[in-house]
Amino acid sequence: CSADFYRRLDDYEFMLKFETDSMVNLHSPYDILYFLRLGYDYYGAPWEWHQDLAHPSGGVGGNGGLSLRRVRVMIDQLTQHPIDPTLPEGEDLHICTLDLKLPPLEGAKSVSFESLPHPSPWGCHKPWLRYLKLEDWENFRTYSPAVDTLKDLNC
Fewest CB atoms within 10 Å of the CB: 1, 32, 42, 130? Predict the structure, then answer.
């Protein structure tokens, strides 16, 4: 995504990126408005392999497959630091290096998870991949059986 992409959304405070291998969990005690009021610029499912990345905000970023993004901040940051399309890293990894206000680890996991589980997340992005431990995958399947249908549609 580029700053030009976000400029098309400038009438909105936030953007929800929702890829087809993501889902919102209807059993979660959270709703999207709860997260929007907390004042963070980006929520993405934290990566197990990047949880030690130090970000100036003290928070963590993560996968963009199911993510909330503050539009004005994305415009400003991507204007100053555009994504280099020749680099192999994903746009979400680039975004997580920008000057954003990111949530703490538990807050990020409560919005979306992929490799680091949360007992009652608002949503998830590809939790069936090799990243999640079998026990955590089974726990999430019990909590949110609809994830089996999502997996069947994407595998």
Answer: 130
